[in-house]
Prior knowledge:
By secondary structure, the chain is mainly β. It has 2 domains: 7-140, Thrombin, subunit H; 152-287, 3-layer Sandwich (tm1086 (SG structure) fold). It contains 5 helices and 17 strands. The protein has helices at 77-85, 122-127, 158-163, 208-214, 283-287, and strands at residues 13-19, 29-30, 36-37, 67-70, 91-94, 103-110, 115-119, 133-138, 152-153, 167-168, 174-178, 180-182, 201-202, 224-231, 237-250, 261-268, 273-277.
Amino acid sequence: xxxxxxxxxxxxxxxxxxxxxxxxxxxxxxxxxxxxxxxxxxxxxxxxxxxxxxxxxxxxxxxxxxxxxxxxxxxxxxxxxxxxxxxxxxxxxxxxxxxxxxxxxxxxxxxxxxxxxxxxxxxxxxxxxxxxxxxxxxxxxxxxxxxxxxxxxxxxxxxxxxxxxxxxxxxxxxxxxxxxxxxxxxxxxxxxxxxxxxxxxxxxxxxxxxxxxxxxxxxxxxxxxxxxxxxxxxxxxxxxxxxxxxxxxxxxxxxxxxxxxxxxxxxxxxxxxxxxxxxxxxxxxxxxxxxxxxxxxxxxxxxxxxx
Length: 307
């Protein structure tokens, strides 16, 4: 059975941003296993970290795929508006510089640093500088299923939602394709936050037994994933029989309480959402972006060693 949305009611607005500076958080940091590291992290223009790549194996932590952007480079209300209105899958156009006119897609937002990540092809990335500006045709916040008001939906473009392949069962539950199913105890930094429309929270990948049992080593940038017994309707919390669906937006991290970041997409109580495992449950597959450009994943520049 098909799912009908209120797409005709959605507001379409222009929001504009620029490249976020790359950060160095500290001269050295200490991981959960006591390891000392000094690695690249958030911000900047990433030429070889893309949607579809593994979130593991990089000499980096909290890495953001594609182009990291902000509105003002400061955490103010206008910045929050940029993060809030732009949804994964939205069309974005470059409006300055040598790459002016090139079109890409919004990947998602990263809380704390308040970055919005954008995907562009390799030719466009080579032309970009920190002076360039991006105009997002923002839409998606406020979308809902007409016949299922108990399902909360955030941060997704209506076209991407349609391409995702969700289906309504005869018992009224909704099947959702995901690449990985995450247990409740594997969620960390971000629990308790109210920022479902601007931030993310992290999947903990420091316990080898949990990684193996749940296949967390399969996580890729852009993956749709399900978190069991997590409620993101009005905030991020543990609740039996709740299901939260998210999308992976940043890489793993050795830091205690941190890991691959997951942006909230959908949440409901009472097992209303039924995760269905699918290798194709990645926004890149659905939009032909990142490593999925031209319908093929090119792994020649991505790290091959997994955690």
